[in-house]
Design goal:
The protein is of the alpha+beta class and 78 residues long. The chain has one domain. The structure holds zinc ion. Zinc ion (ZN) binds next to helix 2.
């Protein structure tokens, strides 16, 4: 698990991959995007952030590593 506590809130946002430019919907720590130009995804990628277009929301696939990390976090028993 990459530096995320079970109780931390998160949100999803489509961002372009830093090398390929392909949009994926990653999870981020926090309650919402607060305008920061860069952030670290839950799956550990540093990405540039910008207001996603409606097209990005519709077409960006969910990042599976982020999904798995959050899912395991939710089902984990301490
Ligand atoms: Zn991800």
């Amino acid at each position: 698990m990459i530096g995320i506590r079970r109780t931390e809130p998160h949100y999803w946002m489509p961002t372009p991959h830093p090398e390929t430019g392909v949009f994926e919907r990653h999870a981020f720590r926090g309650r919402r995007w607060e305008g920061q130009p860069m952030d670290m995804t839950v799956c550990g990628t540093s990405v540039a952030m910008a207001e996603p277009s409606e097209m990005d929301w519709r077409t960006a696939p969910t990042c599976m590593p982020c999904n798995d990390i959050l899912k395991s976090r939710q089902t984990a028993t301490s």
